[in-house]
């Protein structure tokens, strides 16, 4: 069932909020009827890893929020430890070509829709946010992070190269020099470090405070005509989106070739074994 139909048919009211799932329960969406803000909560335990199904549903959510002329979106996590651990390694380990192409296309589409969303977006980063999780956060216009967590594009630690549009997103968030150092070393920033370089905009003591700060940011646009805001955002971000759109198919093939290389597969296998050992040790 399309999210738009869910909005119209599901009327479970809790205070002034409407709550509904996005169909697969990988994402929970609530809309505040008083201000029109939508809170999208990632809910794929244990670490909100981004697989084909998650990214497809995320694209559907963003499409329907745009269609319903959302006044703003807050992106957060149901976990109190992880915002998103990034791309699901199992999508890249011993990849099946057709599935991988669909997966990577859905990742590209999710970035295009989030990075270029017509409505204002805020990430409430209430847990660790490496790799693809960092990309989601950076693709939002504003970032509020809780203490004692880390964020960054650490792909090089796994022997993977961050795609150009990952890099451009970081360059549009922090300085080019800081981006170069962060990407080549696979650096993960602690909360205070992330604030210092501009990777995040605010720090909150807990999730409730972060959500309040997120609404305060969205309220800044109350008196700004939406069309003027949306066009301005397009002028700022449109060139990067157009660049990816021109090269989507080529980039999918190049990424599959890179991921399929024996050395990359060995690195992914080692990482998966490490995660399995950690899980068994608990």
Automatic annotation (TrEMBL):
One GO MF term on file is:
delta(3)-delta(2)-enoyl-CoA isomerase activity
The record lists the catalysed reaction(s) as: (2E)-tetradecenoyl-CoA = (3Z)-tetradecenoyl-CoA; (3Z)-dodecenoyl-CoA = (2E)-dodecenoyl-CoA; (3Z)-octenoyl-CoA = (2E)-octenoyl-CoA; (3Z)-decenoyl-CoA = (2E)-decenoyl-CoA
Key words, A-Z:
Acetylation, Fatty acid metabolism, Isomerase, Lipid metabolism, Mitochondrion, Transit peptide
Superkingdom of source: Eukaryota
Q: So, what pathway does this thing act in?
A: Lipid metabolism; fatty acid beta-oxidation
Q: Note the Pfam families from the entry.
A: ECH_1 (PF00378)
| Cellular compartments annotated | Mitochondrion matrix
Under the subunit heading, UniProt states:
Homotrimer.
Tell me the protein's name: Enoyl-CoA delta isomerase 1, mitochondrial
Q: Which organism is it from?
A: Ignelater luminosus (Cucubano)
């Amino acid at each position: 069932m399309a999210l738009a139909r869910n909005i119209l048919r599901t009327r479970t009211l809790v205070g002034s909020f409407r709550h509904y799932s996005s169909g697969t329960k990988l994402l929970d969406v609530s809309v505040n009827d008083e201000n029109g803000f939508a809170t999208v909560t990632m809910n794929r335990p244990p670490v909100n890893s981004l697989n084909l199904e998650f990214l497809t549903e995320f694209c559907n959510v963003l499409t329907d929020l745009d269609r319903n002329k959302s006044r703003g979106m807050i992106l957060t996590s149901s976990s109190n430890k992880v915002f998103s651990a990034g791309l699901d390694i199992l999508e890249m380990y011993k990849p099946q070509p057709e599935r991988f192409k669909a997966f990577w296309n859905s990742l590209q589409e999710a970035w295009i829709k989030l990075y270029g969303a017509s409505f204002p977006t805020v990430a409430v980063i209430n847990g660790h946010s490496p790799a693809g999780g960092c990309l989601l956060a950076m693709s939002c216009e504003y970032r509020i992070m809780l203490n004692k967590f880390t964020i960054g594009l650490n792909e090089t630690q796994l022997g993977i190269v961050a795609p150009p549009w990952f890099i451009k997103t970081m360059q549009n968030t922090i300085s080019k020099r800081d981006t170069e150092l962060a990407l080549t070393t696979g650096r993960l920033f602690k909360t205070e470090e992330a604030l210092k370089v501009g990777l995040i905009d605010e720090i909150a003591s807990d999730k409730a405070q972060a959500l309040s700060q997120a609404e305060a940011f969205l309220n800044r646009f109350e008196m700004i005509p939406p069309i003027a805001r949306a066009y301005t955002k397009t002028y700022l971000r449109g060139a990067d989106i157009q660049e990816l759109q021109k090269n989507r198919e080529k980039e999918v093939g190049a990424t599959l070739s890179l991921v399929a290389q024996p050395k990359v597969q060995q690195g992914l296998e080692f990482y998966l074994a490490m995660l399995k050992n950690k899980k068994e040790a608990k």
